Amino acid sequence: MDKRQARFFAIGATAVSALVFGGLTLDSHRQFDKLTNAQNLTPQVVAGKDVWHKYNCINCHTLFGEGAYYAPDLTKITQHRGEAYLTAYMRDPSQFYDEQRHRRLMPRQNLSEQEIKDLIVFLDWISKVDNQGWPPRPILVTGATIPGTDMSAAQRSQSEPPAQALPPGARPVTPAQDNPIALGQAVFRSVQPACNACHSVAPGVNMAGPTLAGLATRAAQTVADPGYKGNARDAEGYIREAIVQPSAHLVPGAMYSANGQSFMPTTYGSGLQPQQIDQLVAYLATLK
User: Fold this and answer.
1) Is 118 exposed, middle or buried (0-12, 13-18, 19+ CB in 10 A)?
2) Are residues 128 and 192 in the same domain?
3) Domains in the chain: how many in total?
4) Is pLDDT larger for residue 272 or for residue 70?
5) In terms of CB atoms within 10 Å, which end of the chain has fewer, N or C?
6) Prediction pTM value
7) Cα 152 to Cα 176: distance, rounded to the nearest angstrom
């Protein structure tokens, strides 16, 4: 190739690249309204965005993986934490984390009730934007570590716990397709919102929800307690009730409910198939 041919090749390649880039840009703009759910961009969503900026939330948090990376990414937070939890958390974060133990504590912003509602609506709108898988998984920050390790509970929840991290009495499961316990463990990780986004199965690691280590033992004790207010008669019944009717019995003194309502999502009863609930109960009942 001589200089003249090289020049034409460079000019042609640049022109083709510019056309492709321009076409992709136009196609992206064509899809923006659909991808961002623009039809749901209500005045309350805009008001919530203003709250987000007013309190400089992005100085610590990220949306779509963009921000300060000091605190959790909130792109899908409303799919992992219900409105009751988020409302109580924004009112007073210190009720959920101890500054001496966790070191990083979200400051109390003194948001008004309306600001809290608007911010949750904004974050819910964000969660429904088609982000095409970015960030690739929720960035979870719990501030808790598993005793004897330097791995956070969030990191542990993304991987298989070693045998020594399993709760006492928990049985290892196999990937056999007909094994209800293995299938229940898969539901535990894959259902939306994922159970392991709020619960750990390692002893002493409390996240947004309590650790599930020893769940079956505690469930049996709760059912036998005179103060129990639900309708279950045994441990497995209690676990099932906690999944489909989380507010049927609230543990006294635990910061996992507010105003008589559990922070546990209420969608599992309708969102899961009966067989999936059976499998999930079978798995959780092994955590003794």
Assistant:
1) buried
2) no
3) 2
4) 272
5) N
6) 0.68
7) 29
Query: For position 194, which CATH number holds?
Result: 1.10.760.10
Question: Residue 9 falls within a domain, yes or no?
Answer: no
Q: What is the mean pLDDT of residues 212-226?
A: 96
Residue 162, φ and ψ in degrees, nearest 5: -70, 165
Looking at residues 57-74, what average pLDDT do you find?
89
Contact 68, 59 (CB under 8 A): yes
- The boundaries of the domain holding residue 105 are 35-139
Return the pLDDT at 120. Answer: 97
Other CB atoms within a 10 A radius of the CB of residue 21 amount to 10
**CA atoms within 13 Å, Cβ hemisphere of 90:** 22
* Beta-strand pair 257-258/261-262: antiparallel
Mean pLDDT of the chain: 84
Q: Both 82 and 166 in a single domain? A: no
